[in-house]
Amino acid sequence: MYAVAPEPYEHLESAKHLLDGLRLAGVGVWRWKVDSDFLLWTDNLTEVHGAPASRYDATLDSFKRDVHPDDLDDVWRAISISVQTGEPYSFIYRTNPKVTDQVRWIETRGGLVLDENGEKWLTGACMDVTTRVRAEMQLTRRLRQQRALEELGSFALGEESLQAVADRAVRVAADVLEVPLAKILQLTNSGEELVLLSGIGWRRGSEGHEHVSNNASTMAGFTLQEGRPVIVSNLALETRFSGPQLLHDHCVISGMSTVIAGSDERPFGVFSVYATTARAFDPADAEFLNALAHIVANSARQIAATEHRMLLVREMAHRAGNMLQLVNTLAHRTFTPNHDLAKAHRIFAERLGSLSRSNFLIAKGGWTMTQFASLAREVLEPFRDRVDMRGRDVLLPPELCFDLGLILHELSTNAVKYGTLKNVEGAVELSWRIERDAEAKEYFLMEWSDALSKGMEPCTQTRGTGFGSKLISLLVEQKWGGMTCTDSENGYRFSCRVPLNNTEPARNSLGGQAA
């Protein structure tokens, strides 16, 4: 005996069954009597919109209040067309953030129907499609970002101007991320601050003039310290650092920044974007900005490498002659009639060794701007555990670095003979920094402090009389137009101050021998 099957749709004709299915599927149904303010909807429609149930008052106005103000005109236009033509409608709108718990994307479909009295009703169903819409938007955004990266990468590959690459990169960042402000900050030679290399949306004339400290109290400095992308939701509420005045002047609320790598351990700078409205930057945005920063970094390396090769060819010819003249001067000053030959030979060999180490480090970088810290570590390698070094990661002209290597050699040699390095324990102190005066002129300051030494020679005079002392004076004062100062009251303290704005040295400064 077989059971009799129920009539088709028997159970689904029950309103309760239909409502249960709609509720569990997250679908709400509404029904509007055309040309009136009367609106009906299922109990779960407010839940679909993320609005409280108390919002329902059986009026069309209550529905309009739930729609995002920017979408309301489009929604009503679609409804009007459906009423006029009788064609089904389908559109997606956002909920009003002032009414709902959060902005949701709602898809609605439906059309015009007539009731048993011949009256027109517009009816339809709504469902929350936020997850789907956001996924589609994310995919569209990622594809757009990918195309932008490909185009910028191709442009940078054939571009010989770093400024052009930086300018294009900030435009791409602002356009793709849809922000009004973007900038690239480059770490200055002093290592103490960053300067605006390129930007979009900032006040005219900011490039090359806006300076930002690189300490951790600023967003750029904090980014350098973190070494990874930094996202700010609300600058006014930020506790990790304070935004510079430039950001406040431009009414920045949200922002994001990442490090632009350099050709070595020293970073090139920071790439940042900012919004003047609350913006929730996500990891995908950070990845995109990071990729832009990599393109700028690679371009900087590529352009620098090309410039290095060209400079190296010219510098090799120039330095070969200068090096021979310098060696000749050192030999002439070292092998004097009053010197013991064996002692003079040892001193000369040590000075040549210092020359060799300095030359190797600087030539390795192509005779371009050189990290003084690396030079100091290289020259003072034999005493690395006995020299306390303190200073910023500053960049200096190669020839100045070369001469500073000679000076460090003479100072360390003196400490071995007469000071701290002569003993088993103790350390000398070496510090350096770049200063800027009221006229924006920059100076390199270096200080050597040896608590046990009395000077460059074992005598009571403030300044030594040997060739080491004379060499230092000739290099700093005559060749570079700087100043030296020594103090032997409490040990030996040497300091020098070299102007950096004019990095061309005076020629024929070593007693008639060009260096």
From TrEMBL:
Catalytic activity as recorded in UniProt: ATP + protein L-histidine = ADP + protein N-phospho-L-histidine
InterPro entries in the record: GAF (IPR003018), GAF-like_dom_sf (IPR029016), HATPase_C_sf (IPR036890), PAS (IPR000014), PAS-like_dom_sf (IPR035965), PAS_fold_3 (IPR013655), Sig_transdc_His_kinase_HWE (IPR011102)
Keyword Chaperone part of the UniProt annotation: no
Occurrences of domain Signal transduction histidine kinase HWE region (ranges): 315-393
Keyword terms of this UniProt record: ATP-binding, Kinase, Nucleotide-binding, Phosphoprotein, Transferase
GAF domain: residues covered: 161-310
CDD domains named among the record's database cross-references: PAS (cd00130)
Top EC class for this record: transferase
Molecular function GO terms recorded: ATP binding; protein histidine kinase activity
EC number: 2.7.13.3
Top-level taxon of the source organism: Bacteria
Signal sequence bounds: none
Entries under Gene3D superfamilies matching the protein: 3.30.450.40, Histidine kinase-like ATPase, C-terminal domain, PAS domain
Protein name: Blue-light-activated histidine kinase
